[in-house]
Amino acid sequence: MREKIGVIRRKRTWLAAGILSLTLMTSSVFAWTESNPYPTGVHNGYSYNITSITYVYGSGSNANIRAMTDINKSDSSPSGNVPAGYMGAQARIYNEKGELYESSEMKYNPSPTVRWSVETSGWKGEKFYSQGKAMFYNANGTYTEYTAYKSPLGEATFIQNSKQIDYIKDKYAMNINGDTYGSAVSSNTDPDLILAVGTNGISGYVKSSDLVPEVDSPEAALEQNKTSDRTIPLYDVNGETQIGVFKLVTIENELLPESHIEQ
Fold it and tell me: Would you give the distance in Å from CA 13 to the centre of its chain?
């Protein structure tokens, strides 16, 4: 079981230059942008900041766009690492039309850490947004789902190092089956059917329940981590006729235990 939390307006409190440090050590990143960090409530004693990031990875003909969702334990949380399975992150890339073009799985921190981030595998597009999702364990058999702020619109050729405080979109259209549908970008909660582009280039809808399976414990979350590179159905607007498939591909970043942080 999970509850959903939408976006609220907050003031930016820190820069994300360090977020890409793990990537920068092993790759060529020449343009990036980030959202404001989204501050969460307290979940089982811990609170967090979530940031949506987009960046261009590589150069020349090998350049592609990646999205990252980065979670950091907040300074107000107890000292020590957050236990395994408490933090889940999902990275998503949307095109300028608000169609979901690429997504990672929802992945949970596999060992104790103060920071956890997940990336998409890369998309060769032009203009795009990143908007992350996150899940946090509540210790009563539930997780709370958050939607991070979306990043500013970026372009593959140049991305400004800037911030964005969003939107709130509360209403979706409804199909003949009573399911809500539409773009999940600039939205505080996902519709039942999320506008997406399949591997065949056709626009359709993926079910939010397929995109983010529910878990009810850290043990179940870690079991869910074993799932990778899933392919889920792409449907028509009524969520009945399959018109293609959508593939989820994930890159997990290195964990950052508290003992490794420079004071």
Answer: 20
Residue 204: its pLDDT value, please?
A: 97
Task: Please give the radius of gyration of the chain, using alpha carbons only, rounded to the nearest integer.
Answer: 17
Residue 22: pLDDT over 80: no
Q: What tens digit of pLDDT does each residue of 50-59 get?
A: 999 988 776 6
User: Pick from 206, 208, 232, 212: which is nearest to 224 by CA?
Assistant: 212
Q: How far apart are CA 48 and CA 12, in angstroms?
A: 14
User: 156 and 101 in contact (C-beta within 8 Å)?
Assistant: no
Q: Look at the block and give the residue holding tokens 């509540």.
A: 138
User: What whole-number distance in Å separates Cα of residue 111 and Cα of residue 130?
Assistant: 26
- pTM for the model stands at 0.82
